[in-house]
């Protein structure tokens, strides 16, 4: 077989969460730095991702969107990212959008993604992930797209 493509599309009902999330800015920055350390990146895509002296500086990093000092979106499609996806993404507890489609990330999709209760959009399609998607706790997701493409 030249290739194996698995497409998983799941529509989940929106669930309203009344949980209060305490501010955890430093936790978000540490999680993003762990993401950077695990990924292999060229062409300076993560060049802006360096520790900044100003609080919440990570909110200006490429691909990062914040609301009230918390990371709500991490979107880096088609940026030539390789390496693995750090389990630390599961620490971005306010994350609503994670779009890392059209890169070359490999390895397992971390189970910690199941902790992202607020996730609405998850797109990991067109990477080289192996294994299954731990979707158990993604109660808010409205668009979940995971396609593991394994070339020969
Ligand atoms: C992610 O959270 C876990 C559990 O709270 C913690 O042990 C770990 O150090 C965190 N990782 C990063 C990179 O912040
Ligand atoms: C940190 O990021 C800024 C903004 O992109 C960049 O101008 C600067 O050169 C970077 N600093 C280091 C030490 O890489
Ligand atoms: C899913 O949620 C349950 C209950 O909140 C928790 O015990 C479990 O560890 C969660 N699973 C993952 C993969 O985070
Ligand atoms: C992820 O980003 C790509 C490129 O911008 C876009 O085509 C795709 O629709 C996005 N995925 C989702 C689920 O929104």
Question: Would you mind describing this structure in some detail?
Answer:
The structure is a single chain. This protein has one helix at 25-38, and strands at residues 3-10, 39-40, 64-67, 70-75, 82-83, 97-99, 106-108, 121-123, 128-130, 143-151. With 152 residues, the protein is mostly beta strands. Strands 1-10-8-6-4-3 form a six-stranded mixed β-sheet, with no helix packed on it. It has a two-stranded antiparallel sheet with strand order 2-5. Strands 7-9 form a two-stranded parallel ribbon. Strand 3 and strand 4 (70-75) form a beta hairpin. It is globular and about 40 Å long. It is a single-pass type I membrane protein.
At a glance:
Keywords: Cell membrane, Glycoprotein, Leucine-rich repeat, Membrane, Receptor, Repeat, Signal, Transmembrane, Transmembrane helix. The protein has one helix at residues 25-38, and strands spanning 3-10, 39-40, 64-67, 70-75, 82-83, 97-99, 106-108, 121-123, 128-130, 143-151. The chain has 152 residues and is mainly β.
């Amino acid at each position: 077989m030249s290739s194996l493509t698995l497409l998983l599309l799941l529509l989940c009902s929106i669930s309203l969460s009344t949980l209060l999330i305490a501010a955890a800015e430093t936790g978000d920055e540490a999680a993003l730095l762990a993401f950077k350390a695990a990924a292999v990146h060229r062409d300076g895509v993560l060049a802006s991702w360096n520790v900044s002296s100003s609080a919440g500086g990570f909110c200006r990093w490429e691909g990062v969107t914040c609301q009230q000092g918390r990371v709500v979106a991490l979107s880096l499609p088609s940026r030539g990212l390789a390496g693995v996806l750090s389990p630390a993404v599961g620490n971005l507890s306010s994350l609503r959008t994670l779009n890392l489609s059209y890169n070359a990330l490999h390895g397992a999709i971390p189970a910690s993604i199941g902790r992202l209760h607020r996730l609405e959009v998850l797109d990991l399609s067109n990477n080289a992930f192996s294994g299954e998607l731990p979707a158990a706790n993604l109660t808010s997701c409205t668009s979940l797209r995971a396609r593991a493409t394994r070339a020969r």
